[in-house]
Amino acid sequence: MTSQPRAHGPGTQSGDPVRDSALALVPEILEAYIPLSRAVWLEGPLGPALLEMVRLRNAQRVNCVFCRNARYDIARDDGLTEEKIGWMASEEGREQLSEQERLAVAFADAYLEGPDNLSSDLQAELAAAFSPAEIAHLSLALLLFNTFSRCAVTIGGMPDSLPVMEVSLPPA
C-alpha cells in the first residue's frame, strides 16, 4: 500500500527525481543541496562504490523505498555489484566484503544507532583502515544520506516497493 504523500511535487517533470519531488517546492533550498550532494560524491577522498554501500545501508535502516532501490551509475561504474550489495544484509555476507567495506558498513550502523555506539574497538579499526579525512568524508556522506532519506520517508507518497533502478547525480 502506497503511503499518502504529505506534500506533492511542483508538477513539472524534468526527468530528475530529486528536482521533480516535493523538495522542489522550496527551490532555493533544493538548489543549495544539489552542489553539496555532488561534492560528497565527486570531491571527497572516498570512491563512489564505497559511498553507495554506506548510502544503501542507511536506506535499509531508514526504510526509504526509493533510496533502497536506487543505484547510482557512478557507483556501478566504480565496481559496485548487486552481489556485493546483497552481502551487506547479513553478518555472513559482510565477511565477503573488503576490510574497508565491512568497516564502512559497521560505521554506518553505529552512526545511525547513535554517536555513543561507536565502540573503542571500532574506532581503532577505522583509524587503522581510513585516514582522518576519509572518516570525516564517511561522516558527512552519512549526514547527507540520512537527512535526505528521512525527509523522503517523512514526506511520504512512496509505493511499497520499486524495482532496482539506476540513477545519476542531479546535474549541477
Automatic annotation (TrEMBL):
Domain Carboxymuconolactone decarboxylase-like: 27-86
Pfam family, one: CMD
GO terms for MF: peroxiredoxin activity
Transmembrane stretches, start-end: none
InterPro entries noted in UniProt: AhpD-like (IPR029032), CMD-like (IPR003779)
SUPFAM superfamilies: AhpD-like
Designated name of the protein: Carboxymuconolactone decarboxylase family protein
